Amino acid sequence: MRKFLFLLCTLSSLFLGCTPKTVISPSYNFDQMNRIGIMSFTTPWSSVQGVENLFAKYLIRSGFKVVERAQLESILQEHGLSVSGHLLPETTREIGRILGVDAILIGEVSSYSPPRTEMTTTTSRRTESRPVYTEEIVTLPDGTKTSYMRNSGTQIMRSMDVRPTSYTINAQVGVIAKLVDVETGEIVWIGSLNESSGNALDAADMIARRLVKSFTKELAKLQEQQ
């Protein structure tokens, strides 16, 4: 277990970013949690699908054994079971028995705003100075006349240039994830985070990375206290 905790701490230190909102159960024995099943995260937005795969990626990197989502959902359908945000203990126990998992990660995309382009105007002012010349005629000693241009001053010209300018507002994504013990149906960890990026999946990837980081960090602290 110490080796596993060292791995968790090392991987957690690699993740940077803002602190997500998470809560871990201080009384739960995480030593018994070896295999995690991950369900599809619910989302009404087609642009933010597959978030559960991002969590699977970072949980595997952190040393957890993760049951493939497609396999898990296929077995659940065969046995007429479903997973939602509210799980009954008898349902989770049956899932754990069939799939051989100790916990299930469920979640939802709680908010989403797509990237968009806004228009504004940029105003620039210019000042330009030009010399002013005046023609002067002079009479030469032989009586002939000639002319030349004399600088008689400066003309100041001011102008204003107004141009349309576009700027992009990043996609905004919010995710809530819950880790549920299959034996009791108890939520043993929950986390939420909002992120922004150029596209929705990049924001979701940052959320998965930082939430898993927070979970592994909290788990390591909990094991030290115990």
Describe this structure in words.
The protein is α/β, with parallel strands linked by helices. The chain has two domains: 167 residues, ABC-type transport auxiliary lipoprotein component (Rossmann fold); 50 residues, no CATH class. It is 31% helix and 41% strand. The chain has a six-stranded mixed sheet, with helices on both faces. Strand 2, helix 2 and strand 3 form a beta-alpha-beta unit. Helix 1 runs antiparallel to helix 5. The longest helix has 26 residues. The radius of gyration is 34 Å and the shape is rod-shaped. The N terminus is likely disordered.
CATH architecture heading of the largest domain: 3-Layer(aba) Sandwich
Strand count, sense and closure of the main sheet? 6 strands, mixed
How do the helices and strands follow one another from N- to C-terminus?
A: HEEHEHHEEEEEH
Please bin the fraction of helical residues.
25-40%
Distance between the termini: 12 Å
Major β-sheet strand ordering: 1-8-7-4-2-3
- What CATH calls the topology of the largest domain is Rossmann fold
- Give the overall shape: rod-shaped
Q: What would CATH call the class of the largest domain?
A: Alpha Beta
Number of domains: 2
**What percentage of amino acids are in beta strands?**
35-45%
Q: What is the overall pLDDT average?
A: 82
The number of helical elements comes to 5
Oligomer: single chain
Extended strand count: 8
List the uncertain runs. 1-17
The helix/strand class is alpha/beta
Rg, Cα atoms, Å: 34 Å
- Any idea what the CATH superfamily of the largest domain is called? ABC-type transport auxiliary lipoprotein component
